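Hey L., structure's done. Input below.
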Amino acid sequence: MRLIHSTFIAALLLAPALLMGGCASGPPAGTLPEIGFSHLEKISLKASTIEIASLYKSPLKAPFVEHRFPTSPEKAAINWGKTRLSVSASNNASARFIITEASVKEVPVEKKKTGIVGVFTSEPTANYFAKLEVRLIIEPSPGQVGGEITVNANRNVLIHEDASLAERERIWLEMVEMLMIDFNNEMESRIRTHFSQFVE
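Output:
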């Protein structure tokens, strides 16, 4: 399954304002805002219960670095599920929102310039690759047919060697923001298209 990018160029350009909830002023120095979705309309599923869980277990060691992020892809995805999905039926159907992948890998980048030029030239020192995979499953009432959706989102960003820790954390947060923009657009589109019978 391929992610949809070009259709949502306007949304991507507005990503920081959208996912930060449209705050008029920035966060206090030394703090970063959470990635939130409360400004988006809830998706009401025709089920009586919903489970939001993660099967992803971070290795907590190189090359995986998601545990160092201000907001990890896993945390952002759980927040998305809790904020955007709701249930509105009294039947026996249930919904399951399961995170199966939420990793970020750090890949070193070799310097291209050496000698005196290299000393005074700031170059990318690491490339960060984020990957998110989530399954949404509807387990219906007896006699009904359910369904399953799997959505993948991927993002990467280069960080220069002279970036401070605060700058790195800001760039990491922005990367997860964009990852969640991609995920949000694709998951909602697929729910509306393939799960229309399960949506109020």
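The beta strands are 43-45, 49-54, 85-87, 94-108, 124-139, 147-160. Confidence is low (pLDDT under 50) at residues 1-29.

-- N.
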